[in-house]
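Hey, can you fold this?
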Amino acid sequence: MLTKPASSTTITLWNGREIPRLGMGCWAIGGPFFAGDTPLGWGDVDDDESVEAINRAIELGIRFFDTASNYGAGHSEEVLGRAIGNRGEIVIATKFGFATDPETKQATGAFADDAFIRRSIETSLRRLKRDRLDLLQFHINDFPAEQSDAVFDTLEALRAEGKIDAFGWSTDSPDRAARHAGRQGYVSVQHTMNVFEAVPEMVALIEKEGLISINRGPLAMGLLTGKFTADKAVGARDVRGAALDWMVYFKGGRMAPEFAARLDAVRDLLTSGGRTLTQGALAWLWARSPRTLPIPGFRTVAQVEENVGALEKGPLSADAMAGIDAALAGV
């Protein structure tokens, strides 16, 4: 196990438990799934390798894993269930809202009614081999705020019934995130955040309400790992090659030129203190707010070890953060 993280890289959860301020995002290990011919996964996976990587993360002290009922049409939850099961010391966060067919690996729609939520929870519990869900998140980013009250009424009821311990919303809208902040059991917002997207309004809301900021896309879908060049394309079954409105970091399966320029501007600052580029991107998030909990994706033991290695180096310095702000302003 790595050296115990400093207080700057730990966070206290809603249940009083202190854990390292780093989770593992499990979208990629779900494998392929599709909307018609459009890929929604990150390509083919080796389940044995995924389980080995999960076990290595746990061995190194990681206690938070984030998935969703639709990743790989449920396969991500199944892999986590196989690797972790009902181990009480591990926190599993999952999401609901998007239906998929596990046989065809096709997305079949978005739903948020009470009956669907309850069916989705039972399916997630079975796949994850859990008695109760630690954190259940509403996955529909742009769901109308005024219609979401019934959704969170159901989540409150499920918490009272003992099916879930806490709940949150996966949304990039501060207004949506704020709507349910006063509810008992509402503890987190999952949202895009990385060096290229500082989202100050969302951060201010989360800090004001004492919520947990679960950072998806902390590595900008791989750009902040440094492994992509202008000529390197993703695989044919990789979501980063899909023509989706929200796919800003990649165009036509290759790194978007405007982000390549931004990366060049901050590379040296992110790799200060002996960090890899990946570790610098995570360190930026820890320096940005004490409420952040980044969830970088992974598929291999090596990726897990690099991610976890960032904890020993801690947050970026104030000087490095100011330098990054200035460098990005000049691009």
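Oh, and this one too while you're at it.
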Amino acid sequence: MLMVVDRGLIALTGKLEVSGDIPPELLGKPLLLASNHIGNLDPMVLIAACRKIGVNPRFMLAGGLLDAPIMGPALKACGHLRVDRRSANAGEAMHRAVAALQKGGDPIAVYPEGKISLDPGLWPERGKTGVARMALGGGIPVIPISQWGAHEAVYWGNLHVSGWKDFLPYLTSWLRAVRKRPTFKVHFGKPVELSDLKAETMGDARRAHERIMIAITEGLAPLRLDEPDLPRFHDPTRPTTGVSPWRPA
């Protein structure tokens, strides 16, 4: 039901373009989908893109979402996993994700950056090695996913929403998108080569992380050929305090 709602929402908001695919031999097996994070709507865009190629992703979500009334139980029923990034249980969450993947079923979608990019050009920020550690620790393939366009649909908004006025940036920007109909581009890249790296070898998690982030960035560059430096769309609510080490020269 949620997938149908998501597909309708994305169709109403803009135009979806999907390129690339997931190799058939990886379907139904443990798999990580690692994507850049450019806006509040891009998880829903990613779900619609996955659905278009016949994949139903699960997400690693902040605990607050899974504890929310109505939405929380629905997300849990869909198989999404909890991760409390600021707690000592973050490592345990990674182990739970690996265990869930090794049981088979749908792939898990993750954001190596851990947050929406605040780089002025919306290139991926440095991120953390959690995804790389899951991949190496469980011998799980990683498909890099690059997104562009979802940042035009919903503003970055506010970190803390305490009243109806805090929802206005999200609502007004979404209504603008419904009128303008931006294009949401999603590209599925080739599996990242990690076979020469080991979980127990010092420095290999960092090397794996670098390869994943570089693969995401290489897939992103062709999606924004006419916007190589700054996005054309200006979000007045998004800080630009981040720095991307992966930005192409």
